[in-house]
Amino acid sequence: MDRAELQTEPGQRLQQPVGRLQPTGQSSGGDHREAATTAAIERLEDAGYAVRTRDDADRRRVLVTTTPLAERHLEQVYGPVLPAGTALLSRYTRAELDTIHRFLVQGEQMQDQQADRIRSQTVK
Predict the structure, then answer these.
(1) What angle do CA 90, 16, 108 make, to 5 degrees?
(2) Cα–Cα distance between 81 and 51 in angstroms, integer?
(3) pTM surpassing 0.85?
(4) Exposed site from 10, 100, 112, 115, fewest CB < 10 Å?
(5) The listed CATH number (2.40.50.140, 1.10.10.10, 1.10.3720.10, 3.40.50.2000) that belongs to domain 11-79
(6) What is the pLDDT of residues 8-37, one digit of tens each?
(7) 89, 16, 34, 67: CA torsion to nearest 10
């Protein structure tokens, strides 16, 4: 990644809107999690941030779509992150960014290895 890749047009988003998600894809592992996901979606709907619709391709599926209100609030809160991040990253050379990237990747790998080690231990 170089500095040119970090540049965006004014008003361009770092990510596209959340769009449509299938609620069951957001929870896994039993009825309690599915019930919690359903309750959370209902709260989002009640607040005007999401709507549920049937999937045209599979009527058994329900999709959750963000509303324009949610998109405005997301942009208001997270919109400034892109220019702030771009300004921060522009202070570093390509070599420095490569070192930072390598450190973060190796740190994540170490954390995963240690988590696996801890999970494999039996508490006595």
Answers:
(1) 60
(2) 26
(3) no
(4) 10
(5) 1.10.10.10
(6) 344 433 344 455 555 555 444 456 788 898
(7) 130
